[in-house]
Design a protein that fits this description.
- This protein is mainly alpha-helical and about 130 residues long.
- It has two domains: about 90 residues, Winged helix-like DNA-binding domain superfamily/Winged helix DNA-binding domain (Arc Repressor Mutant, subunit A, Orthogonal Bundle), CATH 1.10.10.10; about 40 residues, no CATH class.
- It is built from six helices and two strands.
- A hairpin with a 2-residue loop joins strand 1 and strand 2.
- The N terminus and C terminus are likely disordered.
- It is globular, with a radius of gyration of 16 Å.
- Strands 1-2 form a two-stranded antiparallel sheet.
């Protein structure tokens, strides 16, 4: 999901399925790291900042995106909010993804559209003005 300044995410374009929105919300490495951290237990934004080494505003926007998607809940306690996974089934999705990745080897990483090499190629093309 594309980040914006207001709520952390922008809704996917009309016509996209719920599954597409789910996978898009997990496609960002920071959000995926947050989900994996919350699988271990509750955390505050300050805890996530320390682990990720990112600014409070950045972490807050990613958490807001996950919250807006219904993947994360916030539990206020005094002036703090403790975040946790809203759906433990999300861990099953991540486990299934790891199984698929193990079965496909490097195929996903080498994908010309979404693999790690495609990001490098896109960056090189942007630098050359293509």
């Amino acid at each position: 999901m594309v980040m914006n300044n207001a709520s952390g995410c922008v809704a996917p374009p009309e016509g996209n399925s719920a599954a597409e929105a789910l996978f898009h919300s997990l496609s960002d490495g920071t959000r995926l790291t947050i989900v994996r951290r919350l699988a271990e237990g509750e955390a505050r934004v300050a805890d996530l900042m320390a682990q990720l080494g990112l600014a409070q505003s950045t972490v807050s926007k990613h958490v807001a995106c996950l919250r807006d998607c219904g993947l994360v809940n916030g539990r206020p306690e005094g002036r703090q909010v403790f975040y946790s996974l809203a759906r433990p089934e999300l861990l099953d999705v991540l486990s299934a993804a790891e199984t698929v990745l193990a079965a496909t080897g490097n195929a996903v990483a080498l994908c010309p559209n979404y693999g790690t090499d495609s990001r490098t190629a896109t960056t090189r093309q942007e630098r050359r003005g293509e």
